Amino acid sequence: MFKKKDSSKIYIVGFFLILIISSITAAIIFEKKTKVAGQKIITLNLDTKVEDNLSWNFSTNNNAMQVKVGQLYKVDFNVENYGSNQSSGKAIYNVKPETLKKYFVEIDCFCYKKQTLLPGEISTYSITFYIDPIMINDLRFRNLNSMAISYTFLDSNNG
């Protein structure tokens, strides 16, 4: 009937079939979990402020946006030094409700470093972020529909 060589080929083919079926099953389960997380949509309100002694305009075109939990986003901010001197600022941010801060994940942000603008210079800075899907498991946020992020540029010429 079967020789040893033939049976080992059958075992190898069977092993690879089981491996492929397991991989496909894992991918389907992962995709379904990701889709469930992605169905939660939150209104993200963005607020921009500048410290009084910093002669900058600071704004974004997207003051409010619909954000899917788990999806990656990039937002651009417009910054202008309307003063007559070079100046530097560093941004800080605040999340409301504050308990959501651990779920607001910034991958890249202009606020991590000091920004310097020449007189009259206009620049665009950006943030890349997502809202961690783990948030969906936090019962405190089951009915959460919106959150606010406020960025404030502080004068950093003295520090």
Please give a structural write-up:
- With 159 residues, the chain is of the alpha+beta class.
- It folds into two domains: 1-39; 40-155, Ctag/Cox11 (Pfam 04442), CATH 2.60.370.
- Helices cover 22% and strands 43% of the residues.
- It is built from one helix and nine strands; from the N terminus they run H-E-E-E-E-E-E-E-E-E.
- The protein has one helix spanning 4-38, and strands at residues 41-50, 56-60, 64-68, 73-81, 87-96, 104-109, 115-117, 122-131, 146-155.
- Strands 3-1-9-5-7 form a five-stranded mixed β-sheet, with no helix packed on it.
- It is elongated and about 90 Å long.
- The model has no long low-confidence stretch (mean pLDDT 86).
Work out the radius of gyration. 25 Å
End-to-end distance: 84 Å
CATH architecture of the largest domain: Sandwich
Q: Which homologous superfamily in CATH is the superfamily of the largest domain? A: Ctag/Cox11
Number of domains: 2
User: Helix- and strand-based class?
Assistant: alpha+beta
How are the strands ordered across the major sheet?
3-1-9-5-7
- Fraction of residues in helices? 10-25%
Number of strands: 9
By CATH reckoning, the class of the largest domain would read: Mainly Beta
Q: Output the number of helix runs.
A: 1
* Range of strand content: 35-45%
Examine the coordinates and then state which fold CATH places here, giving the name of the CATH topology of the largest domain.
Ctag/Cox11 (Pfam 04442)
Query: What letter string, H or E per element, gives the SSE order?
Result: HEEEEEEEEE
Low-confidence stretches are: none
